[in-house]
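Request from the bench team (R.T.):
"We need a structural guess for the complex before ordering more zinc ion. Sequence and SMILES attached. Just send the tokens back."

Command: build protein-zinc ion structure.
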Amino acid sequence: MSQYEHLQQAAYEANMQLPKLGLVIFTFGNVSAADHNLGVFAIKPSGVPYENLTPEKMVIVDFEGKTVQGTLRPSSDTLTHAVLYAHWPEIGGVCHTHSMYGTAWAQAQRDIPIFGTTHADYTTVDIPCAPPMSDAYIEGDYEYQTGFQIMDCFKDKSLDYKETEMVLVGNHAPFSWGKTAAKAVHNSAVLEAIAQMALLTEQINPQAPRLKNALIRKHFERKHGPNSYYGQS
Ligand SMILES: [Zn+2]
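Reply to R.T.: structure attached below.
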């Protein structure tokens, strides 16, 4: 029994959720599950159809992106995952999809405005859209630099990766993360729902105002604050 079996299982289950939730077609998308004590993560192999995936096929990679265990090539986005794990110690899962509505906002290069309480249950800010990558970054180590593009966006906007667990990369698509791979996928599905709702909101009323601050704080804190009362304790 491999010491990485728990990670492979978690990554496998999380990846299999992507087509079920309608977040990916074909082999698009990838999820990883990390163990910071072991300094590795399990990630989907590159280009393998979801129906052919098994837990054993999940590739084990370290936080520099080097394969530690596995014969298949890891996802082409592996270095982006590695950079995020190396710099953000409190995330245990990363998810990347080209889901329809989230990707549309990324292509439009717009933050997703906070219009309602669905959004405020997850974060108090507009979902940030990092600028498109520079030519130098694209021609350099593209996937590696995508990780820095995300982190730079959070630095520039003074955002906390523990409070806002999703981002758009301009011209590209969404990335999300969380304490576990399952939570990262959950956040991807939420991002997609919020992206669709925001688009419809602007279509129905192009002047729709942002959510009031009182409601933003109320909704975020009842779910995440020190005196949260959402769900069962
Ligand atoms: Zn992509």
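Two things stood out. The radius of gyration is 17 Å. Strands lie at 30-35, 40-43, 59-62, 67-69, 93-96, 129-130, 166-169, 174-178.
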